[in-house]
Specification:
Shape: flat
Radius of gyration: 24 Å
Strand order of the largest sheet: 1-3-2
Distance between the termini: 47 Å
Number of helices: 15
Number of domains: 3
Number of strands: 5
Order of helices and strands: HEHHEEHHEEHHHHHHHHHH
C-alpha cells in the first residue's frame, strides 16, 4: 500500500472529529476512525495542539481531544499554522499593500521579503524558511486572506517597521535585485552564489571569454562546497557533485558551438538540482518551528519527486559531456564511481557514499584532474 502524503494524513485525522464533533475522542478512537496508525496519530495531535487546532481534555485518567480549529490548506506544503499566526501574517500583507504606491503592483517576491523582515521583529515564532528564491513565510501572499484583515494602525511600531522595509525593497528595479538584497542582508552565501552562477551560466552559452569562464569554474566549485557544507543528505550531495563535475567537464573540453548546443541541458539541470537543494534548505530551516519527524512526513514525497527530476536532467546533461580518459589511479576510480551514481540509494549505500565523500575532497580532485 503506497504511503499517504502528510497533508492527506492530517486531513484524515481532522475528519475523524466529524464523526462526533461535540464528543472528545481518544488517540485510539481517532486512529481507528482515520485509519492512521497510533504513533502517527499521537504525533499529529501534539502538533495540532500546539497550533490551536485541537484541545486536550482529561477524562478518567485518559487524555482525549476535541477539535477547536480548522485545518487550512493554503500554506506551503500544507503545514499547519495557528490562527494568531495567520492573522498576524495577513495584517502584515495588508499593511504592505496600503503603504506601497497605488498603481504600482508589488511583486509577490518583494512582498514576501518585506514580510519576512517585519515578522522577525513582530513575532519570532512565525514559521519561515529558505526556499527557491530566498527566505519566505509559509503562508504566501497569493494564498492569504487579506480581505478579512485590517492593516496595523498608522503610527504603530508594526506599521513603521513595515514602512521602513518597504522603502528599502522598493528601491530594487526588478525581482533579481530584490532577491540579491535579501541574500546580502542575511549573508547567505549559498543563495548569493546560486544567483551569480545562474546568471553567468545563461550568458556563457552566448558569450565566452577566459575571464568569464574562470569565474564560472570558481562559482561552480563554490556552489558545490557550500551545498555540501549545509547538508548531510548523501543523495543530495552526490547529485550536486555530479552536476558540477559534468558542468566543469563540458566547459573545459568543449568549444563555443558545443557549449551553445548544451545550453538547454545545462540550464534545465541547474534548475532541477536547485529545486532539490532548495527543498532541503526549506525543510532544514523549518526545524526551528516543527519537529523533524513531522517535517519528514510532509517533505518525503517531495524529496523523492525532486530527486527523480534532477536525476533525469543529469542524464540529459551527460549526453553533452565530452569523452576523455581519467588517470587509472585509485582516486580516479573512486571519482568515476561517484559520477553517474546519482540514483535512489539504499540506507547502506548512502552511508558508504557519505564516508567516501568525507575521505575525498572534491576541490582537491578538481585541481588534480585539471577541472578547477
Amino acid at each position: 500500500m503506497p504511503k499517504r502524503r502528510a497533508g492527506e494524513v492530517a486531513e484524515k485525522i481532522c475528519e475523524a472529529f466529524l464523526v462526533s464533533p461535540a464528543k472528545p475522542l481518544s488517540i485510539q478512537e481517532i486512529s481507528k476512525i482515520s485509519g492512521v496508525n497510533w504513533e502517527s496519530t499521537k504525533r499529529y495531535l501534539e502538533l495540532f495542539g500546539k497550533v490551536g487546532l485541537v484541545k486536550e481534555i482529561k477524562e478518567e485518567n485518559e487524555i482525549r481531544y476535541i477539535k477547536i480549529g480548522a485545518y487550512e490548506k493554503d500554506t506551503l506544503f500544507r503545514l499547519p499554522l495557528s490562527q494568531v499566526q495567520k492573522d498576524t501574517i495577513n495584517k502584515i500583507y495588508v499593511s504592505i499593500k496600503k503603504i506601497c504606491p497605488r498603481g504600482k503592483p508589488l511583486p509577490s517576491t518583494a512582498m514576501q521579503k518585506i514580510a519576512v523582515d517585519v515578522s522577525e521583529k513582530i513575532d519570532v515564532n512565525i514559521p519561515k524558511g529558505w526556499y527557491l528564491f530566498g527566505e519566505i513565510l509559509i503562508l504566501p501572499p497569493d494564498n492569504a486572506s487579506m480581505n478579512s484583515q485590517t492593516p496595523f494602525p498608522e503610527g504603530s511600531t508594526e506599521f513603521e517597521l513595515i514602512r521602513e522595509a518597504c522603502g528599502e525593497y522598493l528601491q530594487c528595479k526588478n525581482t533579481h535585485e530584490v532577491c540579491l538584497l535579501q541574500y546580502e542582508k542575511k549573508r547567505n552565501l549559498l543563495y548569493s552564489t546560486k544567483e551569480k552562477l545562474y546568471s553567468i551560466l545563461t550568458s556563457l552559452c552566448h558569450e565566452e571569454s577566459a575571464e568569464r569562464m574562470n569565474s564560472a569554474r570558481k562559482l561552480i566549485n563554490d556552489f558545490a562546497m557550500l551545498a555540501e557544507k549545509n547538508h548531510s543528505d548523501s543523495t543530495l550531495v552526490l547529485i550536486i557533485e555530479d552536476y558540477c563535475t559534468s558542468l566543469l567537464s563540458i566547459f573545459r573540453n568543449s568549444n563555443q558551438k558545443q557549449i551553445q548546443k548544451a545550453q538547454g541541458a545545462v540550464i534545465e539541470a541547474f534548475l532541477r538540482v536547485w529545486d532539490l537543494t532548495a527543498t532541503h534548505e526549506f525543510s532544514k530551516s523549518l526545524e526551528k518551528y516543527y519537529e523533524k519527524e513531522i517535517l519528514t512526513d510532509f517533505f518525503s514525497s517531495r524529496f523523492e519527486e525532486a530527486e527523480h527530476s534532477a536525476i533525469e536532467a543529469l542524464e540529459r546533461l551527460r549526453q553533452h559531456e565530452p569523452k576523455f580518459d581519467f588517470p587509472q589511479t585509485e582516486e580516479a576510480k573512486k571519482l568515476m564511481s561517484l559520477m553517474g551514481s546519482a540514483k535512489e540509494l539504499s540506507e547502506e549505500e548512502k552511508e558508504k557514499r557519505k564516508k567516501e565523500l568525507e575521505e575525498i575532497s572534491p576541490s582537491e580532485l578538481f585541481r588534480r584532474y585539471g577541472l578547477d
